[in-house]
Specification:
2 domains; six-stranded mixed sheet; alpha/beta; binds flavin-adenine dinucleotide; five-stranded parallel sheet
């Protein structure tokens, strides 16, 4: 059983990880190995105190160096589900289960909307995890939304299992070129009865499928943690960064505007201290 799990290697997750490490807690830290895509995209950051004008890439590099100096290690497994149990939490990432006393959601804000039908058919032909569910589609026809180049290896893995893959890439210049992979225009909806059986593309084309894999950077909070209180795309927290579920905290963009690095770092710090208090009470 871990003391904590942190989901997110952006500024909020890093800030919490530094503080938990200083307090010598055992924790698993999930998130992109390149740290925050969002920070990396910023050409110039002018409002983070002490660093003057700095590019997003440089700030990410400094975050990375700080983590390395502190001996922090992250894993780029994607968390697909969190299940609150009576007095602990179960976290599912790439088909592995982790048990923890506390959890921090520092997942950033999900800007993309779900596809029509996605929420209803999740677990019934719609999956967020190639490693977990890929084997179910041996010799079948699937569609895949690949949200970032870092998921291309998952598309390759799926193409090795399925007979045919319809690929919608969410970024320009997708270089994937495999004989059984056909690139398609953006997906609008997924449809089906008991199970997903068709996708509809923007423009109206309908394609028959046996399954749809959605490989996005983030999962909507309500899907990731069933029962968590949300307000639109944001997780509802109090000033202690507590969510409505005991032991689960949230920090950074996922809790609401302003979407700023300094806010994310501050909230990550508060959350870590509240998590320490929660652990100390032995709840
Ligand atoms: C173009 C651009 C310019 C910006 N300029 C500025 C600026 O000048 N100043 C400023 O203060 N802010 C700026 N921002 C905003 C800033 O980047 C964000 O506020 C900040 O990155 C939020 O940090 P975060 O830790 O909350 O989330 P993010 O940085 O979004 O990090 C989210 C993390 O969660 C991980 N994650 C999400 N879901 C999962 C999952 N299911 N499993 C595992 N890991 C998961 C991701 O891999 C990532 O590591 C800018 C943003 C953009 C896009």
């Amino acid at each position: 059983m871990y003391d904590a799990v942190i989901i997110g290697t952006g500024p909020a997750g890093l800030s919490a990880a530094i503080n938990l490490k200083l307090h010598e807690k055992s924790f698993v830290w999930f998130g992109s190995a390149g740290y925050s895509d969002k920070v990396g995209k910023s050409e110039k950051i002018a409002n983070y105190p002490g660093l003057g004008l700095i590019s997003g890439n440089e700030l990410n590099q400094r975050f990375f160096e700080h983590a390395r100096e502190m001996g922090l290690e992250s894993t780029d497994k994607k968390v697909t589900n969190v299940m609150p149990m009576d007095d602990y939490l179960m976290v599912l990432a790439d088909n592995e289960v982790y048990e923890t006393k506390t959890l921090l959601l520092a997942t950033g804000v999900l800007t993309a909307k779900s596809y029509e039908g996605e929420d209803e058919l999740l677990g019934r032909g719609v999956s967020y995890c190639a490693t977990c569910d890929g084997f179910l589609y041996k010799g079948k026809t699937i569609a895949v939304f690949c949200g970032a180049p870092r998921y291309e290896h998952e598309v390759e893995y799926l193409a090795g299992i399925a007979e045919k893959v319809y690929l919608s890439a969410g970024y320009p210049d997708c270089k994937l070129d495999l004989p059984n992979v056909e690139k398609i225009t953006p997906i609008k909806a997924v449809r089906g009865g008991m199970k997903a059986s068709q996708i509809e593309l923007h423009g109206g084309t309908v394609i028959d499928i046996d399954g749809l894999f959605i490989l996005r950077n983030a999962v909507a909070p309500g899907t990731l943690v069933p029962g968590i209180e949300t307000d639109g795309p944001h997780i509802v927290v109090n000033r202690r960064q507590e969510t409505n579920i005991p032991g689960i905290y949230a920090a950074g963009d996922c809790t609401g505007r302003p979407y700023q690095i300094a806010k994310a770092v501050g909230e990550g710090n508060i959350a870590a201290h509240e998590m320490l208090e929660y652990m100390a009470k032995g709840k």
